[in-house]
Design goal:
Largest sheet: 5 strands, mixed
CATH class of the domain at 226-312: Mainly Beta
Strand order of the largest sheet: 3-2-1-5-8
CATH topology of the domain at 226-312: Immunoglobulin-like
CATH superfamily of the domain at 226-312: Cupredoxins -  blue copper proteins
Number of strands: 14
Amino acid sequence: MSAPPLGYLTSAGERAAAIVPLTWFVLAVSVIVGMVVAVLLLAAIVHPRGRALPTAIVAGDDHGLAWIKWGLVLSALPLIVTLVWTMAALGRVAGPPRSPALVLDVTPRQYWWEVRYDARDPADRFVTANEIHIATGARVLVRLHGGDVIHSFWVPQLSGKTDAIPGQTNLTWLAADVPGRYRGQCAEFCGLEHAKMAFEVVAEPPAAFERWRRAQLQTAPPPSSDAAQRGARVFQSHCASCHAVRGARAAGSTAPDLTHLMSRRLIAAGTLPNTRGSLAGWVRAPQTSKPGALMPDQQLTGQQLGDMLAYLVTLK
């Protein structure tokens, strides 16, 4: 399943389905208004200089005002329709679902997304980053927590925008009707790498989602090869203060949890494909790919980098 572009003119879930028709209507009205204004401007430009333009306001001349009256009426109609339609759409999408099938605690940070899967049993809770998996047909409650500055959670094909504000918890929800990968994006300017702060929502059938969930509950396996063992030690000295790997001596909380790093399609919050080459470049010099990211350049030697990769590829 390849991720579609960040499109807002199609929907794949009930919440977005209430918004997309309104978006098309507003877009059509905007295009028509733009064309009318362009035609009037063109007419004004090419109008012969020797002829006087019709006077809009002439004392005692009601005919001169007629076109203004009709213009006001024609302008008011789409505005009224837009207002009523907007209120109706907000009524359909407002408020979280009463009995969500899944509850997520999402904390956006400069410039990545922390995703915690809540559950009644603490043993069923886990943390991931930048990739959200949900089951098709299920309503998912998303509790947004402000991590540092104001961010905005937006998956246009599944849900509208909701801000994440430090000091408060905002609620939103999403649902997907069909399997697929749906790109999300921070929609509130949050700093230098705002444009590269993306994530993916992976909607899959309930059975596939359950398999993924159970796999995420597993801890990382111990490194078996000599290179991976050396890489684990390099990871401990360079990365463990920020990143977490469950099952290893790494419990950082200021950067993405890497327990199942290789199960993700993208790295660096949607910036790079999760290939060995991209991973090597990102580990050694993240500022080259994402200037302004809080992850510093690691300046590893070739041997250290190779060992680190040997360890990271075991985190599945």
